[in-house]
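Exercise: predict the fold of this chain.
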Amino acid sequence: MIDGGGAASAYGSTGSISALNNNYLETSEAYFGRVAFDWDNKYMLGASLRTDGSSKLNKDNRYSWFPSVSAGWDIAQEAFMQDQKLFQFFKIRSSYGLSGNIRAVNNFTTQHLMQATSNLSDPALRYRDVIGNPNIRWEETKQFDAGIDVGMFRNRLTLTVDYYNKSTSGLISTRFVPWEFGAQTMPYNVGDIRNKGFDVELAVSSNPNAAISWRVETNLNLNRNKILSLSDSVLSYGTFIFGGPQSQARVGQAVGSVQVYNSLGVDPQTGDMIYEDRNKDGKWDAKDYIYVPIALPKFTGGTTLSAGYKGISVEALFSYVVGNKIYDYYEQSLRNYDLDWFGAMPNKFDVVNDRWRKPNDKTSVPRAITGVHGAGKSVDWNYRPSTQFIYDASYLRLRNLTIAYMLPKRLLDKATISRCKVYAAAQNLFTITNYIGFDPESANNSGILSSNLPNPRSMVLGVDLSF
């Protein structure tokens, strides 16, 4: 704490001092160059070079270079492909480049800012909750892409397959600092991360002259994420939830792991939970935690089905997620059988109907009990953060359904209407999932569900008129 004394008093109250310090100027500078080569629409090469600078960074880290190269080959344009009719286009392509990001950096990230406060009723200055980091630098991403584009059967079938390998170094985030600094966090280039995988898009459609037209479009993403390095071996990730699991980022694992006990099921004799004592010391504490990746699914995708016949059209969009896991903190909190402030017990999911009731019962749901219980002799033993609350949240959802009818023009001419479409649309009509909660999409980015508000189901009737 710095006592401002008489000098600080001259500026008035602490609120007045902060109001005098709210002007800033940000300057960005960029240079860009690009060359391209195209030979007979068959062979394509490209290269670019860019440099960016920002006044938000200190002088030594202000500028960075971002080169890229690309190449493509349209095989369908080759002479040996001219006599065939199967492929309308057949192109392979690849690229490699660097890109930068400093969106997470604000104008004063590199500065140690002071904040107006008071000390013994006198105006004073103190460090803010976030201290500056003069060594913050550009977050840089190196990405390699390779892909293929195919069109067949007069383009009634199109296929695009992309492979990507993206490594980001100097990932910009925040890290906690000791309280001796007088602050809580500081911005930092916390580590390196890699994402690699495939994107696939496939579309098949009917003959353009068919009486009943139809089209099927589907896409799939398969992504594998891995943390390559961190400023610390483990960093907090996501939002802190009191009494729930701690979401962590850990080297060698995917983003979004939870730190929990390993549940070994329910003891059929006592009805209490059994947790793995990993270090065999007869106690269950932080030394027995395991890290379980949950936030990222194995693959995701969507499919659109559309059809039309004489002015009637139907379109349905399905989305799906496979291998998604959720830590259900909402369910964990419901395993507490204590009464609330109103003397009532909160409602539970119906899985509690399968709870342990008598010796030799075999179930995954522990007994209903309050007070001290279990091997750990604690009031929360049966609902400690553990793998028992990690659920498979894979699902298939009918995201949108639209049915429309375009009135014939002969009926509209008499009313001087050029176009009239009547339609009904619905969202989130149904979801197929084994997840016990209301909505497998309710979890936040860290994979932890702390409230259970499902996506709403909605329906709309409408008329679209043009005159």
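Check your answer against the key: Residues 1-8 have pLDDT under 50 and may be disordered.
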